[in-house]
Amino acid sequence: MDMLTFNFNTLFKSHRSLLWFVVFALRSGIAATQPVLTPEEAVSLALENSFGIMVARNNAEIAEINNTLGAAGMMPTINANGAAGFSQSNVHLELSNRDTITSTHGQTMSKSTGVALSWVLFDGGRMFVTKSKLNEIEALGELNFKDTVQQTVYSVMAAYYNIVSQKQQLASINEAIIFNREQVNILQTSFNAGLVAKTSLLQAKIDLNVYLENAINQEYVILAAKRVLNQILARDTDVDYEVIDSISVNYIPDRDELLRKLNTSNLNIIKAQKQLDIARLSMREYAASRFPRINFTAGYNLSQIDNTASNILFNRSYGPSMGATFSFPIYQAGNINRQVSTARLQIESASYIFENVKLRVSTQVQNALTQFENQQQLLNIEMENEALARENIEIAIQRLRHGQSNSLEVRQAQESYVNSHTRRITFAYNLKIAETRLKQLVAEL
Prior knowledge:
alpha+beta, Outer membrane efflux proteins (OEP), elongated, disordered N terminus
């Protein structure tokens, strides 16, 4: 009996190994025709092609272009001016000495040109505040760009490992199909020998067909997931590719280190701080409007007038000029006070937003850490559970072959194994997402 059991076990394992080899060979032959896209390659493609990143990069460049001394009002402006005119008139003049001057169709031609310079020498320090504000706006544009990059990388990783998990789920379904085929073959042999009822054989065939349907549906799920990733990568959604077949879960977060560097690394917190700084500078800009303004002006002008209807037939003048203008706001209908009051409220709102962002991000980190720890524990338990369920299904099939059990026992064991495998895949994916989320929150993606 022991020798018979040993031969049966050897035959059973060889039979199932052969089936697995056939499935693997078929899948490898299909996969060999498609390029394997690694997570690093997917991230690289997204950074290169993502429309969101392109827009964020342009916005950052716009902020950089606008951050100049001229935009802050610290540089002079120089303009070249020119004018020309022509007029025709009839003139009749009677002078005090009784002389009369009469001109018919008299023509006057005037031309002028010049260069004018205007330079604000003092405006209450507003120009320096504006330059500081432009610096902060440029820094905020760069932060928005980095945040978009981090969000894009997170989306790529989530979409990529979703495909991996869905393909693992398909592999689980294919393995279940192999178990179902073995069960059908055993029951077919037993039915032919008159050892089991036909209902058991029919139910086994029904179960097999259900798993075949599940495999077809799972292929569609994988295809849809690939299209989602292609969309994130900003390429044709019909581009086909393969992904790696495993999810690495070797990340070990340091809770204290994450919380310590959160306020200095999280991009949302830093952006909220920049918004608060910009609001404060805006109020200083408005407050500077209360001070006097001094402009320096200089220029060089040339003008010429030709007049056939006057005693002065030709007049030309040219030469440099310079001066200064002074203005002091005495009454502005309360606009300056209104602007300052509004800016003060905006500072208050920006401060509230800043504190809220810090609290929200802290909560997100705590939740991500809890999620990571929970999923890690669940994954460790389920890996053991899956091994037990796998051994259970193998024993159940052996017992069925020996006539020591029925198809219901095998079906329950098979469902237990498939469910355990599904849970293990889900826990591994959730663990990877929690890891990616933690890295995103401290800008380490």
